[in-house]
Amino acid sequence: MSTEEASTSRSNISEAGSSISISSAPAEAKKVEIPPETEAVLESDRALKTTGNHMLRLQELRKELNYISETDWMYDSLEKKPQQ
After folding, report:
1. What is the 3-class SS of 27-74, one letter each residue?
2. Higher confidence at residue 12 or residue 70?
3. Is 66 among the domain residues?
4. Residue among 55, 75, 52, 74 at smallest CA distance from 63
5. pTM over 0.70
6. Domain that holds residue 52
7. Distance (Å, rounded) from C-alpha 62 to C-alpha 56?
8. N or C: at which end does the chain have fewer Cβ atoms within 10 angstroms?
9. Residues 32-81: pLDDT tens digits?
10. Where is the composition biased (Low complexity) (predicted)?
């Protein structure tokens, strides 16, 4: 980028920056009415996500249980250890 192009881009940026107006008035929050059909879809989507999370958690627990089953031979059980 040449010096002339850089100065041109800076002036474009400053011109664009000066055209932005910022309002200091507080924005009013508008309550949006959600149709019942949309609420039903949102609720079913939430239920699907929850079900999906449960399924993922079950898979993780199965993996952990399989790992424990595969490695249990490495450790002595508490029943075989002498009481202290």
Report:
1. CCCCCCCCCHHHHHHHHHHHHHHHHHHHHHHHHHHHHHHHHHHHHHHH
2. 70
3. yes
4. 55
5. no
6. 35-72
7. 10
8. C
9. 787 878 888 888 888 888 888 999 999 999 999 999 999 988 888 878 77
10. 9-27
